[in-house]
């Protein structure tokens, strides 16, 4: 089983609102939790959200689907050729 949680309001048929306690319960019950919607705050990337949620739930790994990007960078590699 899986759950989708979002930091921004999305149709309940698509995702429920992110609540840390619920995410932890789902994970404890063996469910997969997919976090969407970034942080819900401007100027933060979805990479930032991924690391934030991973930290909050004690994740051991972060799995991200990226389009033409080789991983998590310290800045946008499309804008910064020196991104690491």
Explain the overall architecture.
With 84 residues, this protein is α/β, with parallel strands linked by helices. The protein has a single domain, classed as Carbamate kinase, CATH 3.40.1160. Helices cover 25% and strands 14% of the residues. The protein contains two helices and three strands. Strands 2-1-3 form a three-stranded parallel sheet. One of its GO terms (molecular function) is ATP binding. Its EC number is 2.7.4.22.
Q: Layout of SSEs?
A:
Blueprint: E1 2-6, E2 16-17, H1 20-28, E3 32-36, H2 46-57
Parallel strand pairs: 1-2, 1-3
What is the third-level CATH name, the topology? Answer: Carbamate kinase
- Structural class assignment: alpha/beta
Biggest β-sheet description: 3 strands, parallel
The residue ranges in which pLDDT falls below 50 over 5 or more consecutive positions are none
Distance between the termini: 35 Å
Order of strands in the sheet with most strands: 2-1-3
Number of strands: 3
Average pLDDT over all residues: 89
Domain Aspartate/glutamate/uridylate kinase: 14-84
InterPro entries: AceGlu_kinase-like_sf (IPR036393), Asp/Glu/Uridylate_kinase (IPR001048)
Family: Belongs to the UMP kinase family.
Pathway: Pyrimidine metabolism; CTP biosynthesis via de novo pathway; UDP from UMP (UMPK route): step 1/1
């Amino acid at each position: 089983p899986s759950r989708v949680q979002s930091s921004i309001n999305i149709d309940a048929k698509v995702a429920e609102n992110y609540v840390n306690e619920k995410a932890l319960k789902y994970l404890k019950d063996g469910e997969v939790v997919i976090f969407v919607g970034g942080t819900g705050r401007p100027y933060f990337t979805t990479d930032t959200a991924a690391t934030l949620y991973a930290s909050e739930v004690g994740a051991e790994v972060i799995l991200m689907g990226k389009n033409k990007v080789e991983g998590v960078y310290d800045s946008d590699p499309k804008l910064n050729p020196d991104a690491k």
